[in-house]
Amino acid sequence: MAKNTRTTAAYTTEFHHEFRVETGRLLRRRFLWFTAVVWSLGLLSLLGGAVIAFGGLEGQTVEAIKSPLMWVFSVVWLGMYVWAFLFAWKQRPQDEVLLRLSFWVVTIDGLLALSMKAVGVPGTLGIGGFFITHLFACLFLPWTPWQALRPMLVVLSVNVPVTLVLAKLGQEPSAAGGPPAEWLPNTLIMLALMPFLALPGMLWCWVRHSKRTQDFKYRFMSSRYTEMRRELVDARKIHESLFPRPITEGELRFSFEYEPMRQIGGDFLYASRKKEAGGVTSFSPPLSIVLLDVTGHGIPAALTVNRLHGELERVFAENPDIGPGEVLRLLNRYVHLTLSTHSIYLTAFCFRVDTEASTLEYASGGHPPAFLRAVDGTIEELPSTAFVLGACPDEAFDAAPRTLAFGPGDTAFAYTDGAIEARDETGTMIRIDGLRRMVASVDGMLPTTWPAAFRDEVVGFRGGPPEDDTLMLVVHRMVGDPLNAKASSRQTAADAR
Question: Where are the transmembrane segments (predicted)?
Fold first, then answer.
C-alpha cells in the first residue's frame, strides 16, 4: 500500500508540476496580450479625448473630458498597464509573481475607478468600468474561478462604504428636513446585486479551466503512454538480449520460443557452455540450461529476471562444471535471502547435457514436468524434484538431482506454465496431457522446430492474447558421426553462452 501511495504521489506531483509549467507559459503570453490590448485601447481613448477636448467642440461631454482630474487618473491608469506590460516582457517574472501582478493590476484598476467616482471626476463609470475590466481579464487570463473572485472581493469590499457614503451625501432633504427614507434600501439592493455582475467572468473561468485541465490530463496521459510504450520496447530489447542464442549446428541443437504476456515478462532462459583459456568454447562441452519462471508478470517480473541473470552469471563463472542440483540450491538460497521477503518466488528447471557421457542430469524446483523423447519415440516425464525456489531456507532445501541416459536422437523439451494453462473460449486448458500429445505427434518434424510449432498450436487453441508468459525450449542430440558433429560444433559453439 505504501509503495502504491508513493507511486501515485509521484505521478500526481509530476502532473501538477507540468500543469503549472504550462499554465505559467500561458499566463505570461495572455497577460502580455491583456495589458497590451488594454493600454492600447486606453491610449486611443486618450488621443480621442484630446481631439475632442481641444478641437473647439462644446458640450457637457467635452467639459468632462477637459477635467484635469480625468487626465490625471487616466495617465496613472495607462501608466500602470504600460509598466505591467514592460515588466512582464522584460523581466520574465516567475509564475507566482506574474499571478500576483495580474491580481493587483485588475484590483488597482477597480480602486482607481472607485476613486474617480469618489472625488467626483465627471463622466466616470465607477464600479461599472471595473466590471468591464474584470470581464476582459477573465476572457484573457488563465485564471481559476477563485483567482477571478479575489480582485472582485477586494473592490466590492471597498465599494460598499464608498457607495453608502456617496449615496447619503447625494440625497436631497425631505420635507421634514431630513434625508429621504428610501435612499438606504435602494442603495443596499443595488450593492446586493453587484456581485452577480461578476458571475459571467467567473463562469467563463470555471468552464475554460475545467476544459483546459481535462485537455491537459488527456495529453499528459497520452504522452506518458507513448513514452511508456517506447521505454517498454527498449526494455524488451535489453531483456531479450540476456537470452542465449539458439544452437543450429553441431551435435547438440538448441532452440526456444518466448511469448511474454506483456512487452516483457518473468520467464527466462539461461544457457552456459564451458570455455577454454582465451574465451573459446571447449571441444564437445556439456551444455547447461536453466529455465526460470518468476511469480508475476510485466516489468516487476522482468526486473527480477535481471537480478537472477546476474546471479547465474556469477555462479557459472565461479564454477563452469557446476551440476544442476548445486545450481538449484544456490538459486534457492539467493531467492530465499533476497526476494522472498518481497513475496517473490520462482520455479526452475535446470539440466546439463553431457554428450561424452551420454547423460542428462536435471533438477527441478516446483516446475511443470519436462519431457524426454527418446530416439525410438518413447516419452518420459521429468517431474519436479524440489520445492519452489525461495520457499524454504538453504539448510532445508534438497535439490535431489536425477541422471538419465541421453543418446543420439534423443530430445528434451521443457516449458513454463503459460503453455499448459492456456484456455480456449470454454475455459478448457491444454494441461500437461495436451503438451504430451504434441510431443508424441512430432514424427518427421525437425526437433528444433518444435517450440515454434507448439507455440502456434497454443496460440490457435486459446484464440486470444496470452494470459501468462510462455517459454518453450528443446535440446536435441543429432544422430550421426560424432567427430563430424564436433568439428561443426567447434565453429558454432560461440553461439551459446
Answer: 31-57, 69-89, 101-119, 125-141, 148-167, 187-207
Q: Which residues pair with 291 in a beta bridge?
A: 269, 349
347 burial class (0-12, 13-18, 19+ CB within 10 angstroms)?
buried
- CA–CA gap between residue 348 and residue 368 (Å, rounded): 9
Residue type, 257: E
How many domains does one find in the chain? 2
Considering the domain architecture, whether residues 451 and 314 belong to the same structural domain is answered as yes
Are 317 and 427 in a shared domain? yes
Q: Tell me if the pTM is above 0.70.
A: no
Do 328 and 195 reside in the same domain of the chain?
A: no
Q: Is residue 204 part of a domain?
A: yes
Q: Does residue 226 form part of some domain?
A: no
Contacts (Cβ under 8 Å, ≥6 apart) of 217? 15
Q: Please tell me whether residues 268 and 155 are part of one structural domain.
A: no
Q: Is residue 228 part of a domain?
A: no
Which residues, given as ranges, of the chain have pLDDT below 70? 1-11, 49-66, 123, 166-191, 193, 275-284, 481-497
Instruction: Domain of residue 34: give its range.
Output: 2-170+178-221
On whether both 183 and 132 belong to a single domain, the answer is yes
Joined together, the cell numbers standing for residue 340 give 522472498
Give φ, ψ of 259 to 5 degrees: -135, 100
- Which of 78, 86, 204 has its CA nearest to residue 140? 204
Residue with cell 492456456: 422
CA–CA distance, 151 with 102 (Å, rounded to integer): 9
Q: Which cell numbers hold the place of 53? A: 477636448
Name, in order, each residue with C-beta under 8 angstroms of 264's C-beta and a sequence gap of 6 or more: 232, 235, 236, 239, 298, 299, 301, 302
Beta-ladder partners of 84: none
> Is-contact 146 198, C-beta < 8 A?
no
**Chain-centre distance of CA 434, in angstroms?**
39
Distance, in Å, from the CA atom of 340 to the CA atom of 450, rounded to the nearest integer, reads 34
